[in-house]
Write the structure tokens for this entry.
Amino acid sequence: ATKAVILVGGSSRGTRFRPLSLDVPKPLFDVAGHPIIWHCLTAIDKVPSISEVYLIGYYEESVFRDFIKDSATEFPNLSIKYLREYQALGTAGGLYHFRDAILKGRPEHIFVLNSDVCCSFPLNEMLKLSQEKDAEAVILGTRVSEDAASNFGCIVSDTHTRRVLHYVEKPESHISNLINCGVYLFSTEAIFPSIRSAIKRRTDRPSRLVSYPSSDNLESSFMIDDEDDESRKNEVIRLEQDILSDMADNKQFFVYETQDFWRQIKTAGSAIPANALYLQQAWQNGSDELATPLPNILPPVYIHPTANVHPTAKLGPNVSIGPRVTVGAGARVKESIVLEDSEIKHDACVLYSIIGWNSRVGAWARVEGTPTPVTSHTTSIIKNGVKVQAITILGKECAVGDEVRVQNCICLPFKELKRVSHPIYAS
Ligand code: GDD
Ligand code: GTP
């Protein structure tokens, strides 16, 4: 059997996803009509040997309750459980902490997925490679530009055998443009001993006790770990730094290079490319969830059944309209996400933007962002010499007045924009 783990992180993470993560934990944010982790589950559900999935994170217990309940009906073949870390344990710490639960039923393999990526998740292909190579670990890789590569884990592999020769997490200088997608397949016999030896290496390593001469007390002496004091103190184990490099040296470690789409979902703006990619995937798969193309519905477009879109509004491509949203006559929405209970008044124009829950966009208003090339792996642009967010984002319950123009702005919740907003952090 095979199991899957989705690393969902916790409330101290997802800070770059603000202001959207102020109201919803990032893994549950809707792109293409579904929570980010629903897309992971959909891919996991296509692997016949998986029947158990763990969401591991340090959000409160209640956060995923409704999602898990809904998923039980939607994915009847999967048993989904949330396992809560008592504190952030790092990307491998949770795996280790919950090893008894994970190893129950003796699975041979586990998939580990970062929740904050948007991807076609070619899990069956990874499984196949693993079997062909008798691998102990398979990592999903993708090629990015040289500029972008150092923001990710970098993989040096043998082109012929696909074996991973070196792995360096966010290297300072360029080593490879094949990067870690944050999706792994491990044999259970390899991963847990690897984590155990990483812990052992850490405990064995001598640490320096440095005493700072301080006039009033002696408590100001503390341990300095050459690498990372935090990680030692907190039992944090990082898959990337502590395990993967070592696996490249010592294990049967292979890379499956995807030719399909892949993007990270870090900043709030990155939900726009993710939305576009998942909608395009649904469109290619002939999904019946999407709106029927019409002269003024340019596919792919997702419209929630409870939304009310005026027949003269023009939508798409790459638009998601959430529950109970109203879109007025003559409005234009393109490359955008409009969240629950929002209203776009008549003749308004919303481009490359995210309209937060229960917001209002006035008549003839323009809310605009800027497109970023898919290959750039960033959602910021330089405008008039200043780095600004490419995607305009309205937080929860914002209001844009009639005829007001908002460009490249991030607008915090409950704000009212009555006048023209230039690229600023409207707060
Ligand atoms: N449960 C749990 N506990 N999950 C965590 C923790 C933790 O302490 N820390 C991070 N995560 C989850 C995050 O929610 C996210 O889904 C994933 O682990 C990775 O997050 P980061 O640790 O922030 O790493 P990153 O996104 O900067 O980089 C990772 O992903 C890139 C691909 O998107 C690395 O694996 C890179 O090598 C990789 O290229
Ligand atoms: P396509 O190019 O075929 O997608 O048609 P389009 O011209 O509607 O889309 P485009 O990519 O040009 O981007 C949206 C356009 O809508 C912009 O050129 C806006 O000027 C225009 N627009 C601005 N305000 C409104 C409005 O209130 N209603 C409508 N329908 N369109 C507007």
